[in-house]
Amino acid sequence: MDNVPFKGIIAYPVTPFDDNEVVDIPLFKKQVERLVAAGSHGIAPLGSTGVLPYLNDAEKEAIAEATMKQVSGRVPTLVGVSNLTTEKTIYHAQFSEKAGATAVMIIPMSYWKLTDDEIVRHYDAVASKISIPIMAYNNPATGGVDMSPTLLKRLLEIPNVTMIKESTGDIQRMHYLRKELGEEVAFFNGSNPLALAAFTAGAAGWCTAAPNLIPELNIALYEAIQVNNLEKARKLFYQQVDLLKFIVAKGLPRSIKAGLDILGIGGGGFKSPLGPLSDHDIATLETILASVKSEEYQYQ
Amino acid sequence: MDNVPFKGIIAYPVTPFDDNEVVDIPLFKKQVERLVAAGSHGIAPLGSTGVLPYLNDAEKEAIAEATMKQVSGRVPTLVGVSNLTTEKTIYHAQFSEKAGATAVMIIPMSYWKLTDDEIVRHYDAVASKISIPIMAYNNPATGGVDMSPTLLKRLLEIPNVTMIKESTGDIQRMHYLRKELGEEVAFFNGSNPLALAAFTAGAAGWCTAAPNLIPELNIALYEAIQVNNLEKARKLFYQQVDLLKFIVAKGLPRSIKAGLDILGIGGGGFKSPLGPLSDHDIATLETILASVKSEEYQYQ
Amino acid sequence: MDNVPFKGIIAYPVTPFDDNEVVDIPLFKKQVERLVAAGSHGIAPLGSTGVLPYLNDAEKEAIAEATMKQVSGRVPTLVGVSNLTTEKTIYHAQFSEKAGATAVMIIPMSYWKLTDDEIVRHYDAVASKISIPIMAYNNPATGGVDMSPTLLKRLLEIPNVTMIKESTGDIQRMHYLRKELGEEVAFFNGSNPLALAAFTAGAAGWCTAAPNLIPELNIALYEAIQVNNLEKARKLFYQQVDLLKFIVAKGLPRSIKAGLDILGIGGGGFKSPLGPLSDHDIATLETILASVKSEEYQYQ
Amino acid sequence: MDNVPFKGIIAYPVTPFDDNEVVDIPLFKKQVERLVAAGSHGIAPLGSTGVLPYLNDAEKEAIAEATMKQVSGRVPTLVGVSNLTTEKTIYHAQFSEKAGATAVMIIPMSYWKLTDDEIVRHYDAVASKISIPIMAYNNPATGGVDMSPTLLKRLLEIPNVTMIKESTGDIQRMHYLRKELGEEVAFFNGSNPLALAAFTAGAAGWCTAAPNLIPELNIALYEAIQVNNLEKARKLFYQQVDLLKFIVAKGLPRSIKAGLDILGIGGGGFKSPLGPLSDHDIATLETILASVKSEEYQYQ
Description:
homotetramer; alpha/beta; TIM Barrel; eight-stranded parallel beta sheet; 48% helix
């Protein structure tokens, strides 16, 4: 697994806005600092959690630079640069490399369904313009394209496409990837409720927004797997699964920001039309968070 | 049906690019002129067919202005202004109104699934900033949101949301709309292969890219329905259905541009990562076009 | 269209049971008489509506014989003989022919998904043992198999397979059948809410349980299509669509029996585990039936 | 977990037929003997693998009795008794109890979709007539009903419904069951390609036809989980996953019988319309079987 700078828990920060829907950089840095301090193994700004597609160029660049400054080399960084057009994807990938990103993540966003050849040309065009590694991201639910294992194989032939993030939520897909692509290919799980099954299947890491709320539990799950302790991993997973399912069901930006408010850290505001969690859902989240933290099993 | 400036065949032009992926305005105007001259009842630039989400602000504005100039009031115009953020949707809606658009079309684009309240606020915010009517567009396949009839009812309470375009491709959905929203609400069909069934169900119009290739057949189908001649409508529909299915299956921008090339009008190029139809598909399209035009039934 | 003894409204009776879950033949005959007297163009016992798969051999035979006796040649009869095994399908097809059935209907029931070759052999084996025509029935929702147009083409090469009943509820499927199989093939619609669209698309008939409750409206819709009066057909369809949707949503045996009780004819009881409609749903059905019958538009 | 007589690998025999489509009892006994001798923890005749719905009463009874005679109390037996009607389900459940079955398995087979109340009454009626425990089986793909966790909770309130077999193939469903129903409820996995993920999630056993072909690998996987050795379990799983996927994709009766032929044991014939695997698929299965058995990792 050459040129794979990630493993373990890759934490996704949100993008907070102030009351005028302007990005709140000081709050963002505070949130990132907390993710690093908690022991996350990587930081991934401008993902779906960070509402990348809703941001303009200036906002994207401010978030990328703030991440580099705050992380300051303590852990590797993975910056989302996906865009509908190849031209803009290249633009943001080059900006990220210059800003100091360890790697970039690219999902083939699609309004009109792309052919396999178009997707390969897209990755190839971007890859040829940067020298840092690329994580190819498959998430039909948000990206609109479902990349087949055959297509992923073709992408992995591009020298700096070295990692795959799989978010279909289908564990059999991961089994298939592992069998088809071989043990040496690094694949990462992007489906929170699949965390246990994906590590069991051999995932190298877990791309997740959950560390904003329960970093210790996320990291403990990974560590139990590392020491081959399935029973402990299972207990840790069942301790956190209700929260993982809630944040996915309600939308990551909404639920993570509400959770950060509950925890006293501050989640920040939204960019319209996205808005906050309903009062009813906030109350449910409070109950789940309290329950997760009070369960008898201790992860230390 | 107050404030409903459309009926019949609403034609969607493509957005042609030159070899440097720059919008080709002269070719665009030529294509629009042909749609008007053929008898289309309305012109709708910057739709899905016009690859709206792939264009930057300057490109969108150039296309909107070129449309107004070329159509020059001969038929009403419907300009697509959808955007992920409310702020940009308002910006483009206001620009279109100033440029002379008859109405704007808005689909609630969604990367993160919006709640019904968020969608209503989105339309309400845009509607309050313009005075021309709005067509609310439902297309889960491209927009990622499926607006329920209940939600559409709420949208129709906003004074200048006066039209609905439905593209789920489910005819039973149109029956439901008609029963729930009442006969007085104008709904438009956006699913090409559903053209006959939708007119049968009472659709006021058909939003379609097909007039770029077979305007006479599209218009003749509408006219047969208008004179209550089902048998003629059925024959006309079966004459064109293979083409309608082909352009949907292969993607409208790709297949319409290829068809315009075949017809000698010129379709123009693409913006990456979108590319042209494969040679094999072009050959199939040639066969279908030749067959459509040679069938014995004459639509005059 | 040789050897096609059906057109128009083919009415499906229920199978009523007494309190001991024994088939109530006198009530069944009364229900059949009413369907014939109301002007149905054909009678189809032992369909899904008649809970065929829940009956034992003696019950099936009693229902088939009672139908022949009551109909007495006034209209053609279409008897359901589908069974998981080829052996039993042949048995019931031969019994029906001897009892005087005009034709038999066969859906390739499937617990284990059958290959195309297995389905062709199944129809071929049955067809070779009887001399009356066969209607091949496609309904993935109840049968578990979705027969492709290619497969249907193969089935139509068997001499006495002469009719197709299509119940996928997808109007585009009917368009495809018509285009692929040619105008001379008789296809019948088995999806109630698709009645208008299917006749518009050229269906020869409508296989439906609705005549148990609203025979005049069903027949009037067919007649409006026959005289090429789309406007009248549309009005008649919207008058009955709520009822058509209700009976499908709640299950045909349950809702038709409840409707027959409301109309004072008597629907009869059920065979466990199937049971009656809930009180709440019965109240809804009463409201719909009253509304259907009171609407201003008169179908005479 | 009271009254739960199963754990580990519950092996499903096929039902072999001779050339006249008559059940081949001697071959069946030989196949069962092999499953017991190989170390299976339970034997489950008359499942989907055993083509239960295609058998008549006499065939079902012969298979049940032959199983009891051959197994002779060495391991517990689980007999499938599902039927569309409650009356016949009771009949077969009572027969199985008298024949000596340890427990019965019941899926709520459904042609017409059953309500939750109807399903509860169905299980309740059967449970009240027997004294051995019942495994409730959820498999929407073959049974046509998807029982919600809420419904499963209601079923578990019936005293002798003590086990759940889940075959939706969705690992998140198992997480939900475990969280909602509590650790004390015994749930069994019925989806072969989910074997590793289901054991990881805490499944008590694996209901599978695979031991007909690779019993040592199936048992070794279970044992690795028992000793908390995730790494070993993962290796064993990846060694067998291609076979597990193949037998599911091609249909269990077809592929298991072909595999038994390849292994020299003899799979027996089929009941029409079901037929054998194609020559091409048989060749693929030979390759997969050879590869599974030759892989370097040894499971002893």
